[in-house]
Structure formats: structure tokens, C-alpha cells
Amino acid sequence: MLLIEDLHVSIDDRQVLKGVSLEIQDGETFILFGPNGSGKTSLLMTLMGFANYNVTKGKITFKGKDITHAPIYERARLGIGMSFQRPPTIHGLKTRHLISMCAHHRDREVDVDALARKVNFDQFLERDINAGFSGGEIKRSELLQLMAQKPSLLLFDEPESGVDLENMALIGNTVRELLNGSQEPKLDLSLKDLRAKRHTSGLIITHTGYILDYIHADRGQVLHDGVLCCEASPRVILEHIGKFGYKECVRCLK
Ligand SMILES: Nc1ncnc2c1ncn2[C@@H]1O[C@H](COP(=O)(O)OP(=O)(O)OP(=O)(O)O)[C@@H](O)[C@H]1O
């Protein structure tokens, strides 16, 4: 589904990604770890196509199409959706209107109120996007946009940040539903069959790993100073970082 080859990205004159290569298959969920400032958000912003992130070398292919220099709307139309760490406030744009726009491409009209009720967000629909929203409310607003858009590749930048434990369950379960599509996985399926049934892929940044309690994450890696290293199961990586910190990752780069 997503193929990133030798991606080099600069913001102004500063190189933030220094040769990232990564493949995410249909239905696969990939977890990205890394210390502050290592380039994780920059990777997601580049995949979404934001202008400040200049691809100086490398290629991004999505569903077989070269999207390295494609505009944001084309990537969204192809099926890439993103939940931001710190999304902007948009005065003058009601949440209801944005949710309707996110669902615009779908065949059937979406019941925005019913969708919002799923994430306890119906009472926020008449408010401007993110205007005065708390950390947890911002996350629910982001999720609601994705639920309306139904992308086939979900990019999540720290779904747990600013979320209390009670809301974490709501957010974790909603992320799982988005990744599984409408289909809840049956417990008796093998991992291979489970993956074959999922068509939505995920690329999720986490510092705490709380999200791992709710989703099935297939693979993980650490991004260290703009370079990927330490590929392992996400739980193993989390445990390793907890014990030794990120400086141990440097050993994998040698
Ligand atoms: N618009 C910008 N202008 C200048 N530098 C930027 C800009 N955006 C990001 N950077 C720099 O690029 C580097 C990577 O930032 P990025 O946000 O991708 O890191 P991160 O791994 O997501 O960090 P965190 O875990 O703290 O969220 C940082 O040093 C950051 O200051």
C-alpha cells in the first residue's frame, strides 16, 4: 500500500529525514517510536504532503502511484488520512461542516450526528474547529474527521497525548475500529487471516505505547535523528526503550 524509498526531507535548510525507507502492506499497522525532535511528525507531514517539508531525494508510492510531489487533496482523495498532534484552530468553520466535507466523497450521505455520538462529540458540532477544545476533545474531533473520511491509510501522531485514562479507552477502541473497518476480528482467526481481512493500514507514532493495549500492531521501528533503526515487535521496542532509553538505539545504527 505505502512504499517509502530513501526519503530525504528538509525544512528550510535543515535536513530532518536522512534516507527513510519503509513499506507498509495492506491491513498492516506500523508503530513509530523515537525521541523528541527525531523527525516522526515530519515523516507524517511529508506523507500527507504539507508544503514546508521539502523532499530533496527519494520517492513515496501509495497504491502504486508516485505521490512524492502530489498535493494534499490528491493524497486525501487516494485514501490517506491524518490525525495531527497539534491541529490548528479554524475560526469560522463549524465542526459539523468539516465532518460533512470529510465524508463528501462517500457514496451515501453520512449522518454526522450519529457518527459524532459514537465518540461523545455531538455537543461540539456547532463549535468552530478546535476553538477552545481540551486535549481530549481535540483527539475526538480528529477521530471524528477520520471516521467520516474512512481513509485506507491512517496516520496518527500520538493518539494518546493529552487524553485521560477514561477517554483513552474510547480513543483506543475507535482507532481499532478504524483500522479493522466495520469488521470486528474473530478471535479464532490466525494472524495471517486476520491481516488478510483488514484493508486499512496504520502508521502510528507513540511515546507511551498506551495505544498498543487497544490495537493489533504488526511491526515497529525507532526513528533516530532522521534515520530508521531497531525493527522489532512494538512491545519489545517499548520495553527496551523503557529499560535502556533511546541512546541504545544508536548501537543498532552502527
Ligand atoms: N516548521 C519548522 N521549522 C523549523 N524546524 C522545524 C519545523 N518543524 C519541525 N522542525 C524541526 O524538525 C525536527 C524534527 O521535528 P519533528 O516534529 O518531526 O520531531 P518529532 O520526532 O515528531 O518530535 P516529538 O516527539 O517531540 O513530537 C525538530 O528539531 C524540529 O524543531
From TrEMBL:
Highest taxon listed in the record's lineage: Bacteria
Keywords attached to this entry: ATP-binding, Nucleotide-binding
Alphabetical list of InterPro entries matching this protein: AAA+_ATPase, ABC_transporter-like_ATP-bd, FeS-cluster_ATPase_SufC, P-loop_NTPase
GO molecular function, one term: ATP hydrolysis activity
CDD domains: ABC_FeS_Assembly
PROSITE patterns in UniProt: ABC_TRANSPORTER_2 (PS50893)
Stretches assigned to the ABC transporter domain: 2-250
Spans through the membrane: none
Family recorded in the similarity comment: Belongs to the ABC transporter superfamily. Ycf16 family.
Name this polypeptide is given: Fe-S cluster assembly ATP-binding protein
